[in-house]
Amino acid sequence: MIRAVVLAAVFLSGAALMSLEMAGFRLVQPEFGSDIIVWGSLISVFLGGLAIGAFLGGRLADRRPALWKLGAILALGGVVALSIPLYSDAVLDYMFPGEGAPLPEEWNDGGAGTGDGQLVVYMPPDLRWPTLGVGLLLFLVPAVLLGMVTPYAAKLLIHALGHLGSGVGKISGLSTVGAIVGTLGTTFYLITWMGTRWLLAANGLVLVGLGLALALAHLATPRE
Amino acid sequence: MRVRIILGMAALAAGVAVLAVVPSASSDDTVVRYDRESRYYRIQVVDYPAQGRRCLHFSKSRGIQSSMILADPVRLDLKYSQAMIAALALHPDPREVLLIGLGGASIPKFLQKYYPELKLDIVELDPDVVRVCQDYFEFRGNAKTRVFVMDGRMYLKRAQKQYDVILLDAYAADHMPFHLTTVEFIQLVKSHLKPGGVAASNLWEKAINRFYLAELKTFQATFPQVYLLPAAQSGNIIVFGTMAEEPVTRKDWVLRAEERVRGLDIGFDLADLIGREYRFLTDRKIGEAVLTDDKAPVNTLRHEHPKHFEEEGASP
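^ Those are the sequences you sent over. The predicted structure of the assembly is below.
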């Protein structure tokens, strides 16, 4: 029973992570375009979050691991996902590329060209750091929280797993399969069906639900 | 054996070197002038000597972005680009024009030649496209032309300038950036139009599909008046939105077009094109949802056939 709940948490948190990432692209593209910089930034933020989460989750798991604590991590991730639409517009506005830089005067007056056939070309603002900033502000925290799940689950199941190598491999593999399901499910079906905001909300609700399920499992487990 | 391998490699290297230097002539008698991966596309410039044409492709298998008649580089060769010019006739007195999506610069070259007093701003995402237009499509600057290299929506968000006519040519057949289709974007376009302004968008569709209807619906949701010119046989459909309270009839638009091109040898019959293809869309019922930033399943809709749509045009 515990095993099943924890493995479900591993699978679904992997799915939610990638679903959030795909939703992230849709959230950012209207303001920042579909440049490859946007992809690079968001993917890096999610990978960074996973790394930090794995590190923190592992440390937390070594201090009196409990099912309810894993539940709390997931529920917190869910709450963050649910709240992203509340502040995403403010974050995008704040980080809007070149917003801090003064608008070139000649942008808004008449023609600034010369008559000699030389083309007047204005080059774009630098997208790199603003895009990375948006990724960090919107998605680092949920990615860290979801990244904590795998090591924590491994610790919880360490006795049920038997051999450590195959056990950890199973958890890691399950998480990645979940990530694939989350990626394909989101891009092939869910974005079209529910739109970005509802998708974020749905992910949040699934994670909060998982957190509650783990808390219930904790209560149902006989104390030692 | 070893000698043969070395010889083979030398021949291969020589072949690669030749390919890299000389425009390659393939069996169907085309000459590739330029073929390079840019940050956004694979840009190809291909000559078709039998037709006397030079075309811009974002990968050759994916349709023509732009076409130029080598003997007459300013002529609008593609039907859709001719239909885009109709926007200038929908406006009573266009002076400032914004073009989003440079393509092969056919529309800018046309406007520079026939309407030299127009102030023309152009927004193009890809700096290599701007360079290719200068190097292969005879695009030059003048005192009235400016080019901004960036995403079209990003430009509109930053610029405060307003225009008489905004031409949207930012879609390619297989590259439909969803953030340039939504009602939020079209409203941003509208907010950069002066009173009486006109927006025109090339929807680049070969057949009626659900995306195309949803985009028409999105124009309806934004502009008081909406018109359509299906550009015959080119797979492009131009939708026009205007700020005018009163609709423009087919006859009015034709008359204005005749006025606009009077005394100019523009190489095609603009008035006739409008007269033949005019569709009035303001009141047309369209059974699709408006596209929004939150929900714009553009690539799904493009592959779905609509349940029902009357092709016949109504007149106001």
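Residues 79-301 of chain B form a domain with the Rossmann fold fold (CATH 3.40.50.150). Chain B has one domain: 79-301.

Shout if you want it in another format.
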